[in-house]
Design brief:
about 350 residues, alpha/beta, 5-stranded parallel beta sheet, about 45% helix, about 15% strand, globular, binds fructose -6-phosphate, aminotransferase, repeat, Glutamine--fructose-6-phosphate aminotransferase [isomerizing]
């Protein structure tokens, strides 16, 4: 039941803190598997991270974290699995909330034939993808009814941060507070996210820009608003503006900046470029705001938890944009919760 919420999506966003808490406890209780996976990843030649949609964005985020430390992680959109030939020293990480996405299954099948070991991160125990893998990591986000992934995305990010810290032999203590950060962010920003969503609801095109670790979150923000509010949105790394996309910007064009809390001086310049073309700028910032943004949401959080702070905000923005436009966010047209067809 929706327990008093108007939609499952909003209920599930509000369940994100508990989903993250349970997921982290689950990882702590299965430290043995996490350590084995970490060891496999440290030993691997390359780490192929295969996933679709929202799960791909979590995979891209994880790949960026690893690549910054000198690993070779390749984020791979599941339906493009045929583009990579594996060797025995490569390892595959399959990320799938449902554990049933056909494109991910097909990629796993090919990579197994090529001799690679498979690690899976799913939310469904003994799903197909979990069964097919050598190492099974589970989120404990609970069932997600809304078609749009919300609490499962935030839980994927928490799981992958956990795994990353173990790979790097860092303490995971900071993650025990992660659910509190998520809860505070939801409480503190829901009103502003509603305002952002209702403003954006009037638009027909939006850019979502970020830099560094903010890029996958910008991509997720754009996907969500397309998926449930039916507003065309595009995300790209902010530095690319002058290489083409800024040509589209005219007076009133909305640009949402995901200010992850790193590279903020560069992002600030990108914001100025947009404002010089009379764009309307919206920023979502962790710890330090962007100057001169027309609208802003600022949250404070441990910088290692920035992604977990931003995720519920972009989801709430999309939710309130959809509701404002009169659409049912739980049942977006043309979409199924689990994509088991090609
Ligand atoms: C978007 C969304 C989809 C899924 C994608 C993969 O909100 O939910 O993009 O993320 O279909 O699904 P899973 O994670 O089940 O493999």
């Amino acid at each position: 039941s929706k327990e008093g919420y108007t939609h499952f999506m909003l209920k599930e966003i509000h369940e994100s803190p508990i989903a993250v808490k349970d997921t982290i406890s689950g990882f702590l209780n299965d430290m043995e598997t996490v350590k084995e996976v970490a060891e496999e990843i440290r030993r691997a030649n390359r780490i192929i991270v295969i996933a679709a949609g929202t799960s791909y964005h979590a995979g891209l985020y994880f790949s960026l974290l690893l690549n910054r430390k000198g690993y070779t992680a390749i984020p791979l959109i599941a339906s493009e699995y045929y583009n990579i030939k594996l060797s025995k020293n490569d390892i595959v990480l399959a990320i799938s909330q449902s554990g049933e996405t056909l494109d991910v299954k097909m990629g796993i099948k090919k990579f197994k034939e090529e001799g690679a070991k498979i690690v899976s991160l799913t939310n469904v125990i003994e799903s197909h993808i979990a069964r097919e893998s050598n190492y099974k990591l589970y989120m404990r986000a609970g069932p997600e009814i809304g078609v749009a992934a919300t609490k499962t995305f935030t839980s994927q990010l928490a799981s992958l941060l956990f795994l990353y810290s173990v790979i790097e032999r860092e303490s995971v203590d900071y993650l025990e507070k992660a659910h509190e950060v998520v809860r505070n962010v939801i409480t503190e920003t829901e009103g502003l996210a509603k305002k952002f969503g209702e403003e954006l609801a009037k638009k027909s095109n939006i850019y979502y820009l970020g830099r560094g670790l903010g890029v996958p979150l910008a991509m997720e923000g754009a996907l969500k608003i397309k998926e449930i509010a039916y507003i065309h949105a595009e995300a790209y790394p902010a530095g690319e503006s002058k290489h083409g996309p800024i040509a589209l910007v005219e007076k009133g064009f909305p640009v949402v900046f995901i200010n992850y809390g790193e590279l903020d001086d560069e992002l600030e310049k990108n914001l100025q470029e947009m404002k010089a073309r009379f764009a309307i700028t919206y920023s979502i910032s962790v710890n330090k705001k962007l100057n001169f943004s027309d609208f802003e949401i600022l949250v404070n959080a441990d910088e290692r938890l920035s992604a977990l702070a931003i995720a519920p905000i972009i989801q709430m923005i999309a939710y309130y944009a959809a509701v404002k436009r009169g659409y049912d966010p739980d049942k977006p047209r043309n979409l199924a919760k689990t994509v088991t067809v090609e």
